[in-house]
């Protein structure tokens, strides 16, 4: 998330009422999660395990819960609860805007696009030309759709991220201020749910096709010309490169990369990065020919055991 203007470190610290290390006028231009930060961004960290990763990231402002040595060229915001204060900044720069109309007055709809009855378009939604948005679709604030996009009934674009911090009295939600961006020539089936980014974008790449009943988590990037079948569940912060095929009921954990040309057979449980142009099967998943040989060997076990004297 980039701010509308450049802010000083002092002014950001005043918003969240915290101590800071760095010059008063140190420039702050945005806030992001660690996998998408750029210079000028704030990143938050609240666990010693991840201190080094945050301090060594591209972010130049680190919101942290311990006073540590500040890396050269960076600044620190010292908070007793970085998670809480990151939420404060999201509320300040991307506050919730209630809607009182099905289609917001500031939504932009391109020439030739058809919007069927009972569609909801939130604030600042942009839809390109020659799209077809079927009945009962919900497209949340700030989402962007390109040209020739089809979205089938019951789909929700721009729901909040499933991202919580466990507290003694329950769970605190990390607020979402990002977007969903759908590129040209994408088709999304019925009853899919595509969550927006926490601070960045969830992206569906050009020419990709999604079946019905698919869940895609926050900040996930789907590449170009991907094919995703029904009942697939993809966690947040996944990178799916171009020309990937994902068959039904596959589950993909967060923070991994599905390489170009990968094929994931039905019901794969994907727990790590894949190799380009390789087909996988099973849970735990593996290269399909190897897994089928293992399965054939397992089927022979009763016979082998029976013959052991």
Automatic annotation (TrEMBL):
Q: Which InterPro entries does the protein's record reference?
A: Hexapep, LpxD, Trimer_LpxA-like_sf, UDP_GlcNAc_AcTrfase_non-rep
The UniProt GO MF terms for this protein read: N-acyltransferase activity
Q: Does the keyword Lipid biosynthesis apply?
A: yes
| Cited SUPFAM superfamilies | Trimeric LpxA-like enzymes
Please provide the Gene Ontology terms (biological process) for this protein. Answer: lipid A biosynthetic process
Q: Name one Pfam family in it.
A: Hexapep
**Matches recorded under NCBIfam families:** PRK00892.1 (NF002060)
What's this protein's name?
UDP-3-O-(3-hydroxymyristoyl)glucosamine N-acyltransferase
Organism field: Christiangramia salexigens
